[in-house]
Design a protein that fits this description.
CATH class of the largest domain in chain A: Alpha Beta
Helix content of chain B: 25-40%
Shape of chain A: globular
Order of helices and strands of chain A: EHEEEHEHEHEEEEHEHEHEHEH
Strand content of chain A: 15-25%
Number of domains of chain A: 2
Distance between the termini of chain A: 20 Å
Oligomer: heterodimer
Largest sheet of chain B: 7 strands, antiparallel
Number of strands of chain A: 14
CATH superfamily of the largest domain in chain A: Succinyl-CoA synthetase domains
Number of helices of chain A: 9
Number of strands of chain B: 19
Structural class of chain B: alpha+beta
Helix content of chain A: 25-40%
Chain lengths: 288, 380
């Protein structure tokens, strides 16, 4: 068992012929992900990887022809919101947007649009999701994970890999690892993913990887306190970050009175979450 | 990206928001000329991208053009919170009856823009929020529909604005919404919006922050970037597409990924060191980019040790090693270098670095301990 991504995933790649799209589609297929279609406007009729994956001009045609049930977006930032709208309009139930740098106004429009539909969006500016030995969507390296019962949810990319790998080396496997992205306005929140882990019978405990900026972690703490029965361990990055500077991620900024790591840690601790001082402490904090 | 008051007010003015008569000056004599043209008492305002300019003496009233020139000369020589004052705004002085606060920003939790108003204008809104939260009015704006007229009326009622001002207030609220939305702002703030003694509404101050992610669709905005806000190193970093922020410690960091870069800074601190910077070389960084990052870090004279922490995913560790090696001959640094490579091609990377007298580490904790020890001059 897992959440979001598994053997029944039928994946469509939007922007399959771009630099990133090409590279990561090959990686996803190698991992065993069932990639059924690609979309690049103007390249419909071509094939990806010597006849393995058909390419279509539009998402509508791709879904009609292949029954894709999940989409991953690798298109450049200026076209990313359009790609999300296109996939949502066609009714794809799950969309991952890997692209970094989508204007926040477009994301607010996306959120308002999705609010009237049943499509779930993860990202943008996220590494995707990985269910070990079943499927990976996005850019998480597949070789660093092994199957198990720990759910991982994170706002980060490489820090997530670091922690995933730390767990694997400690002999602890993962049910699903989900990156929700580092932008101020995203499709899914910690709460959305925590809820899925709580409902997943195979996930026994959860690792939450947060960072400075916004109040997502505080809201997650409230949710954990009220709704979760499974134990949660957390690490919050950015305790040494200065106020008012954007730390790489568009959403990682401490504004004058909000977004501080200390406040997030306090809120999580109050909800019974065990806090790791550094990533390598996490395996020891998990319930045996 | 923050823009200056004069740029913000010019933007507001294009959307029909009344602003004081005035112009920006780079020299004291220009300031005098503008004051002469205006022919009234003027306010000389330092144009620097920091708060509390007034408290620092950067906003002064001048009764005559000569006084405007003198004050401009003083203010143009000032540094406020470390930033040089290169321009002053010369605005006509306005007699004020009442000060209002009005802004639009993005609410991260609601995923919507929010218009914020308060009858307690002229002071920092964070201060109002702490001292008199009941005086803050918030109205959410649907990003697909925009600001409705009734919402502007709702705000006017909530801040007890007399009927006589409603028409002009609605026009200002609508103008502010359009300025915010059409320019991809993340903040558009008028503080204060004043009611003048001759019963007009005027935006006395303006502050706008633009979304860096949207600059591609506003080529005109790029020219407004004030280089003074960033250190020269930060500007160079931007040229190489490196995400760099200077800090005050002594351990330089080169990391791939923003989250991991923050975690690396944190762990350095945890083991008794102080990070000298935040630096994310990004995904799939080339040897050239790594070399540029390396040069940037060692150019900081505070740096006593460098920690390279790479988790190879898209980024290949051998490529990072090549970048470091290519920069070494030119830099000729004696600063100790602690390298930790994990993931894609880590073995190859470490093999390449084997002859270069570097300290290597297996884990993040070990890397942080070794870097901290290197700074303290202890045995590594």
């Amino acid at each position: 068992m897992s959440i979001l991504v598994n053997k029944s995933t039928r994946l469509l790649v939007q922007g399959i012929t771009g630099h990133e799209g090409l590279f990561h589609t090959a990686q996803m297929i190698e991992y065993g992900t069932n990639v059924v279609a690609g979309v690049t406007p103007g390249k419909g009729g071509d094939w990806f990887l010597a006849g393995k994956v058909p390419i279509f001009d539009t998402v509508r045609v791709a879904v009609e022809a292949t029954g894709a049930n999940t989409s991953v977006i690798f298109v450049p930032a200026r076209h990313a919101a359009d790609a999300i709208f296109e996939a949502a309009e066609v009714g794809i139930p799950l969309i991952f947007c890997i692209t970094e740098g989508v204007p926040v106004q477009e994301m607010m429009q996306v959120r308002a649009f999705l609010g009237q539909r049943s499509t779930r969006l993860i990202g943008p500016n996220c590494p995707g999701a990985l269910t070990p030995e079943e499927a990976k969507i996005g850019i998480i390296p597949g070789n660093i994970a092994m199957p198990g019962n720990i759910g991982i949810v994170s706002r980060s990319g490489t820090l997530t890999y670091e922690i995933l790998y730390t767990l694997t080396r400690a002999g602890k496997g993962t049910s699903t690892c989900v990156g929700i992205g580092g932008d101020p306005v995203s499709g899914s929140t910690f709460i959305d993913i925590l809820g899925l882990f709580e409902a997943d019978p195979h996930t026994e405990q959860v690792v939450l990887i947060g960072e400075i900026g916004g109040s997502e972690e505080e809201r997650a703490a409230d949710f954990i306190d009220r709704e979760m029965t499974k134990p949660v361990v957390a690490f919050i990055a950015g305790q040494t970050a200065p106020v008012g500077k954007r730390m790489g991620h568009a959403g990682a900024i401490i504004e004058t009175s909000s977004g501080l790591a200390g406040a997030k840690i306090k809120a999580l601790q109050a909800a019974g979450v065990r806090i790791a001082h550094h990533p390598e402490e996490i395996p020891d904090l998990l319930v045996r | 990206m923050k823009i200056h008051e004069y740029q913000s007010k010019m933007m507001f003015s294009r959307y029909g928001i009344p602003i004081p008569n005035g112009r920006v000056a780079s020299t004291a004599s220009e300031a005098r000329q503008i004051a002469e043209e205006l022919g009234v008492r003027v306010v000389v305002k330092a144009q620097v991208l920091v708060g509390e300019r007034g408290k620092a003496g950067g906003i002064r009233l001048a009764r005559t053009p000569k006084e405007a020139e003198e004050l401009a000369s003083i203010i143009l020589g000032m540094e406020i919170k470390g930033l040089p004052v290169r321009k002053v705004l010369i605005d006509e002085a306005i007699s004020i009856n009442k000060e209002i606060y009005l802004s639009i920003t993005n609410d991260r939790d609601a995923c919507q823009p929010v218009m914020i108003a308060s009858e307690a204008g002229g002071i920092d809104i964070e201060e109002v929020a702490t001292r008199m939260p009941e005086k803050i009015i918030k109205v959410f704006i649907d990003p697909l529909l925009g600001l409705h007229d009734y919402q502007a009326r709702d705000i006017a009622t909530s801040i007890d604005l007399p009927h006589v001002y409603w028409r002009s207030f609605s026009a200002i609220a609508r103008g502010l919404w359009r300025a915010f939305w059409e320019n991809d702002a993340t903040l558009a703030e008028i503080n204060p919006l004043v009611v003048t003694q001759d019963q007009k509404l005027v935006a006395l101050d303006g502050k706008v922050i633009l979304d860096d992610n949207a600059l591609f669709r506003h080529p005109d905005q790029v020219e407004m970037r004030d280089q003074d806000v960033d250190t020269p190193t930060e500007t160079t970093a931007r040229k190489y597409d490196l995400s760099y922020i200077k800090l005050n410690g002594e351990i330089g960091c080169i990391v791939n990924g923003a989250g991991l870069a923050m975690a690396t800074m944190d762990i350095i601190k945890l083991f008794g060191g102080e990070p000298a910077n935040f630096l994310d070389i990004g995904g799939g960084a080339s040897a050239d980019k790594v070399a540029a990052a390396f040069r940037l870090i060692v150019a900081d004279t505070n740096v006593k040790a460098v920690l390279v922490n790479i988790f190879g995913g898209i980024t290949r560790c051998d490529e990072v090693a090549r970048g470091i090696l290519s920069a070494l001959p030119e830099i000729k640094t004696t600063i100790p270098l602690v390298v930790r490579l994990t993931g894609t091609n880590a073995e190859e990377g470490l093999h390449l670095l084997a002859d270069a007298q570097m300290i290597t580490a297996e884990t993040l904790v070990e890397a942080a301990q070794k870097a901290t020890a290197a700074v303290k001059g202890g045995m590594v």
